[in-house]
Amino acid sequence: MLFTTSGSSGTPKGVIHTHDSLRANANIVAQYFGDTSGMHWLACLPPSHVGGFGVISRALLWNCKLTAVPQFDAEQVESLARQGITHASLVATALGRINSALFENILLGGAKPPPTLPSNVITTYGLTETMGGVVYNRTALTGVEISISADQEILVRGPFLMNRYYQQQLSHPIDNEGWLHTGDLGSLSSDHQLSVTGRRNELIISGGENIWPEVVEAALMNHPDVSDACVVGVDDHEWGQRVVAFIVPTNISATHSLVEWRDFVSESLPRFMAPRQVVIMNSIPRSALGKPQRQALKETLTP
Fold first, then answer.
1. What is the third-level CATH fold of 2-200?
2. Where does the AMP-dependent synthetase/ligase domain start and stop, copy by copy (predicted)?
């Protein structure tokens, strides 16, 4: 089976999985839930991605009910939940448009989750290369091994891993000991809770300081006039890279100067993390799984 990555930071990759890796992922998720016989799953994510296909394959393997719809529609999703659907897999933008209390559980994947979530929402961490989520609510599922390398990269091992990349001259991400090098940086707490810092290739180094886009985005989202935000790093002759913030305002008539944006971010973060350029947008381009298309945003900037 061939799936494509989101390509949020560049060119999407084709990832090949076998029936064994698909079944292995379904098995570890089944162990998490326990009794799956009474479940009724809603499939509303694109089946070309592992997040969407995983809902379908798990329901078939578990022999539980499945309802599939062509695309996410908030009104339809709520209606179906009232008719008996118990579980769904969604992204953060979709979650914010529905009454999540209508479901027994919702698996949340894709982009970074909001800071506060209802108790029935389960955050997931995984990649196309892992056949979907393998860490639920920051804890590795049974049969999933997580390790942090010396340079803070998250490593994952288990029978659910990809076979190989498709028709691309890419280095194989699984080492000789069976560890998948995810390209994500993070840490494990003393009680084995996983924290994901961000993608290695999205780290911004400005004036010698390390800046994670997600941290600046979270600060911007606390502003009452911001409905969405995305932060990228672009080449800069003075700083090496400069922080650029793309902002979708809640009210287009509300205007703020660059100094005002920098001052606001500096209230909660070090001054060096504040954006040196702000671009106002009507919307942030996102993948089908809700991930911001950072490379596409970079390409809109004049060199």
1. Rossmann fold (3.40.50)
2. 2-137
How many residues are present in the chain?
303
From-to residues of CATH 3.30.300.30 in the chain: 203-298
Cα-Cα-Cα-Cα torsion 140, 144, 145, 149, nearest 10 degrees, comes to -70
Which single residue is written with the structure tokens 């529609």?
73
CA 82 to chain CA centroid, nearest Å:
28
Q: What does the pLDDT profile of the chain (303 residues) look like in tens digits?
A: 999 887 655 678 899 999 999 999 999 999 999 999 999 999 999 998 899 999 999 999 999 999 999 999 999 999 999 999 999 999 988 999 999 999 999 999 987 788 789 999 999 999 999 999 999 999 999 999 999 999 999 999 999 999 999 976 777 899 999 999 999 999 999 999 999 988 888 889 999 899 999 999 999 999 999 999 999 999 998 999 999 999 999 988 888 999 999 999 999 999 999 999 999 999 999 887 788 999 899 999 976
Which residue ranges does the chain devote to CATH 3.40.50.12780?
Answer: 2-200
Is the Cβ–Cβ distance between 228 and 248 less than 8 Å? yes
Does the domain at 203-298 match CATH 3.40.50.410? Answer given as: no
pTM beyond 0.85: the answer is no
Q: Where are the beta strands (DSSP E) in 137-258?
A: 139-140, 145-148, 153-157, 164-165, 180-188, 194-199, 204-206, 209-211, 226-236, 240-249
Can you tell me the distance from the alpha carbon of 15 to that of 29, in angstroms, rounded to the nearest whole number? 21
**Paired sense of beta strands 132-136 and 121-127, if any:** antiparallel
Alpha-carbon Rg for the chain in angstroms: 20
